[in-house]
């Protein structure tokens, strides 16, 4: 049923599988070594960003909620897994050091050692209450879902119940992510202030496994998560649920009079996408190696919206294509690899000019290709959109009916 | 016969302007009723209050056998109770097919989780086809609602209302923008619907109201001015002065 309605699911999964396979056989760990480990990590991280963009497309492109705070959930997921990575890794080191002491260390001493190692940088030696479960991977993995999920639920419940809509809701979500970032920046909030969590690429218990291998494992995990989320998202939008959320996007008052609780649906999709973002973040930051409160800056969430807009919102593959295309291009330009543009009188340094280029691209796409990059795919697939320009299509057989309008 | 909807003594003012002023109204289980009145008489505000979009400053709105108050309920809850509303301008979901529009309106559990696991079955598909046939859109099932003509959109919206199986139907100016033949069809449909449920028609057009041949309530300045058959209210001197005389 799902496949019949959305044949793109199969194509997407096939492309994703082939990509993962090709990277694997060209990697240093499992193949020829043509692709350096840093590039494998870049690919893995990009897949995580694509996963976040997929969630953004669900919440914005389908349900019409322009959230400019979803990267906060992404970062929260990263923080939750980062806590375990840092704690468990420090525990290994501290235990190894204390093993040389003449008297065996008590658990209290071990914990104090860990706290001193982690929080010495912000002038504290006590483990904050928030780190109570940091040593337990299972609980911390659960918190990856629960903390952002609960946070999104409470925020959404307050906002949607008061019927905050449109641009006001966007501003509110920005305020939320900014407030969270400012809070995390404080040294005494228990997350190492502006130092953030670091050394996340070292996986506890896998110290002997080289980074080249770990990077491939994370690539697989990221690809798997993206594939599963894509199936879930396609299933969500294909049935009656998809109909209802698209209807909410287009005319929410009418949906209310049909008897659907609009607030409940918005809350559901907002919380679900927050949790998908959190999973993406939990896979991203071990590959990035470091997370700090700057990751929650509002600009990060705006980028997410830009990716989805450039890729094409209201299309699941559009979001993925947009995120991959723009973020890879972005790292190419800002990584200093792009040749400088020599105009004779002025040399364009792309590190500086990339933002301008992205801004112009965003404006152009919004004006001339509302479906973004996915309109290329639409053109190939022969889909056409009704260009009614506000008018009705013709009432009778002779008039323009745009039968071919599938999208 | 007991009343299905009983509105008593409601008032609502917007910035000091009394849109509804101590209005009382009731309608029985299977009854067709027309509400007429000049612009600003409070027709739309009245419908907003019944459907939960607007809360009255005072008064009561009671519903059904148990006379439950509707004032504490949200729009969605009221709709689930069985009050359907047809807007003046056709509001269908233009981006989705006729079948999707009808499926969404079908009477079924409305919670997010039940909708998530809901699957189109033989029964629901047959019902959608039946509804589409009833409103003359059987051939258009897979077209986008946005491609339909104005009249067809009106019919689709009526089909969606039927799919909801409401016990009370509030219809705002159904004849607006319809051709003569379409009006004829609409009159027949409304009359037939009123055999099994309550139907309230808000209308400007006296000719259309005459065709409905039902009890008429005349609103003026937020209150009921007269009530009775069309001939009866037409003879009322107050009504002639404020509405018909002009």
UniProtKB/TrEMBL annotation, chain A:
<dbReference type="GO" id="GO:0015658">
    <property type="term" value="F:branched-chain amino acid transmembrane transporter activity"/>
</dbReference>
<feature type="transmembrane region" description="Helical">
    <location>
        <begin position="316"/>
        <end position="333"/>
    </location>
</feature>
<dbReference type="InterPro" id="IPR017778">
    <property type="entry name" value="ABC_transptr_urea_perm_UrtC"/>
</dbReference>
<dbReference type="GO" id="GO:0005886">
    <property type="term" value="C:plasma membrane"/>
</dbReference>
<feature type="transmembrane region" description="Helical">
    <location>
        <begin position="139"/>
        <end position="160"/>
    </location>
</feature>
<feature type="transmembrane region" description="Helical">
    <location>
        <begin position="42"/>
        <end position="61"/>
    </location>
</feature>
<feature type="transmembrane region" description="Helical">
    <location>
        <begin position="264"/>
        <end position="284"/>
    </location>
</feature>
<feature type="transmembrane region" description="Helical">
    <location>
        <begin position="167"/>
        <end position="185"/>
    </location>
</feature>
<protein>
    <submittedName>
        <fullName>Urea ABC transporter permease subunit UrtC</fullName>
    </submittedName>
</protein>
<dbReference type="InterPro" id="IPR043428">
    <property type="entry name" value="LivM-like"/>
</dbReference>
<dbReference type="InterPro" id="IPR001851">
    <property type="entry name" value="ABC_transp_permease"/>
</dbReference>
<feature type="transmembrane region" description="Helical">
    <location>
        <begin position="9"/>
        <end position="30"/>
    </location>
</feature>
<keyword id="KW-1133">Transmembrane helix</keyword>
<keyword id="KW-0812">Transmembrane</keyword>
<keyword id="KW-0472">Membrane</keyword>
<feature type="transmembrane region" description="Helical">
    <location>
        <begin position="290"/>
        <end position="309"/>
    </location>
</feature>
<feature type="transmembrane region" description="Helical">
    <location>
        <begin position="353"/>
        <end position="381"/>
    </location>
</feature>
<feature type="transmembrane region" description="Helical">
    <location>
        <begin position="214"/>
        <end position="237"/>
    </location>
</feature>
<keyword id="KW-1003">Cell membrane</keyword>
<dbReference type="Pfam" id="PF02653">
    <property type="entry name" value="BPD_transp_2"/>
</dbReference>
<feature type="transmembrane region" description="Helical">
    <location>
        <begin position="68"/>
        <end position="87"/>
    </location>
</feature>
UniProtKB/TrEMBL annotation, chain B:
<keyword id="KW-0547">Nucleotide-binding</keyword>
<keyword id="KW-0067">ATP-binding</keyword>
<dbReference type="GO" id="GO:0005886">
    <property type="term" value="C:plasma membrane"/>
</dbReference>
<feature type="domain" description="ABC transporter">
    <location>
        <begin position="5"/>
        <end position="246"/>
    </location>
</feature>
<dbReference type="InterPro" id="IPR027417">
    <property type="entry name" value="P-loop_NTPase"/>
</dbReference>
<dbReference type="GO" id="GO:0005524">
    <property type="term" value="F:ATP binding"/>
</dbReference>
<protein>
    <submittedName>
        <fullName>Urea ABC transporter ATP-binding protein UrtD</fullName>
    </submittedName>
</protein>
<dbReference type="InterPro" id="IPR003439">
    <property type="entry name" value="ABC_transporter-like_ATP-bd"/>
</dbReference>
<keyword id="KW-0813">Transport</keyword>
<dbReference type="InterPro" id="IPR017781">
    <property type="entry name" value="ABC_transptr_urea_ATP-bd_UrtD"/>
</dbReference>
<dbReference type="Pfam" id="PF00005">
    <property type="entry name" value="ABC_tran"/>
</dbReference>
<dbReference type="GO" id="GO:0016887">
    <property type="term" value="F:ATP hydrolysis activity"/>
</dbReference>
<dbReference type="InterPro" id="IPR051120">
    <property type="entry name" value="ABC_AA/LPS_Transport"/>
</dbReference>
């Amino acid at each position: 049923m799902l496949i019949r309605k959305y044949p793109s699911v199969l194509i997407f999964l096939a492309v994703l599988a082939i990509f993962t396979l090709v990277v694997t056989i060209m990697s240093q760990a499992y193949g020829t070594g043509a692709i350096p480990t840093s590039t494998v990590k870049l690919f893995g991280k990009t897949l995580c960003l694509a996963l976040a963009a997929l969630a953004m497309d669900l919440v914005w492109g389908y349900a019409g909620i322009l959230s400019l705070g979803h990267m906060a959930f992404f970062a929260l997921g990263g923080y939750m897994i980062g806590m375990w990575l840092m704690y468990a890794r420090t525990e290994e080191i501290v235990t190894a050091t204390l093993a040389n002491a003449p008297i065996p260390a008590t658990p209290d001493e071990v914990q104090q050692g860990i706290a001193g190692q982690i929080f010495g940088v912000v002038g504290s030696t006590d483990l904050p209450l928030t780190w109570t479960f940091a040593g337990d991977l299972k609980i911390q993995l659960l918190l990856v879902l629960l903390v952002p999920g609960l946070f999104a639920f409470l925020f959404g419940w307050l906002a949607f119940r008061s019927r905050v809509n449109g641009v006001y809701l966007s501003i509110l979500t920005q305020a939320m992510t900014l407030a969270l970032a400012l809070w995390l920046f404080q040294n005494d909030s228990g997350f190492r202030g502006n130092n953030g969590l670091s050394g996340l690429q070292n996986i506890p218990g896998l110290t002997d496994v080289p980074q080249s291998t770990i990077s491939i494992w994370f690539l697989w995990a990221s690809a798997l998560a993206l594939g599963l989320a894509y199936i879930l998202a396609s299933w969500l939008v294909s049935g009656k649920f998809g109909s209802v959320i698209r209807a909410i996007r287009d005319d929410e008052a009418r949906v209310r009079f049909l008897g659907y609780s609009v607030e409940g649906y918005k809350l559901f999709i907002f919380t679900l996408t927050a949790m998908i973002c959190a999973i993406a973040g939990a896979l991203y930051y071990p590959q990035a190696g470091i997370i700090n409160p700057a990751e929650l800056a509002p600009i990060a969430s705006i980028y997410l919206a830009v990716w989805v807009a450039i890729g094409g919102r209201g299309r699941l593959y559009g979001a993925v294509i947009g995120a991959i295309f723009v973020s890879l291009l972005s790292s190419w330009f800002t990584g200093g690899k792009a040749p400088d543009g020599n105009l004779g009188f002025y040399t364009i340094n792309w590190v500086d000019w990339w933002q301008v280029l992205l801004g112009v691209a965003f404006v152009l796409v919004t004006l001339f290709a509302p479906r973004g990059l996915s309109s290329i795919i639409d053109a190939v697939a022969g889909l056409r959109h009704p260009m009614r320009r506000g008018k009705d299509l013709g009432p009778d057989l002779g008039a323009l009916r745009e039968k071919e309008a599938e999208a | 016969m007991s009343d299905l909807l009983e509105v008593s003594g409601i008032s609502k003012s917007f910035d000091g302007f009394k849109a509804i002023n101590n209005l009382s109204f009731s309608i029985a289980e299977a009854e067709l009723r027309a509400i007429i009145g000049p612009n600003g008489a409070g027709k739309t505000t009245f419908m907003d209050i019944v459907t939960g979009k607007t809360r009255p400053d005072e008064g009561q709105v009671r519903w059904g056998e148990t006379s439950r108050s509707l004032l504490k309920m949200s729009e969605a809850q009221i709709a689930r109770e069985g009050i359907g509303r047809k807007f003046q301008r056709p509001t269908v979901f233009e981006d989705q097919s006729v079948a999707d529009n009808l499926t969404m309106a079908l009477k079924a559990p409305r919670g997010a989780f039940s909708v998530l696991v809901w699957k189109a079955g033989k029964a629901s598909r047959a019902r959608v086809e039946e509804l589409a046939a009833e409103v003359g859109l059987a051939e258009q099932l897979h077209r986008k609602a946005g491609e339909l003509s104005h009249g067809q959109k009106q019919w689709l919206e009526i089909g969606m209302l039927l799919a909801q199986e409401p016990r009370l139907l509030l219809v705002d100016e159904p004849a607006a923008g319809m051709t003569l033949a379409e009006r004829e069809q609409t009159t027949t449909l409304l009359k037939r619907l009123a055999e099994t449920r309550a139907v309230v028609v808000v209308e400007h057009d006296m000719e259309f109201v005459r065709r409905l041949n039902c009890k008429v309530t005349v609103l003026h300045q937020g209150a009921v001015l007269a009530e009775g058959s069309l001939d009866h209210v037409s003879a009322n001197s107050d009504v002639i002065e404020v509405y018909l005389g002009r």
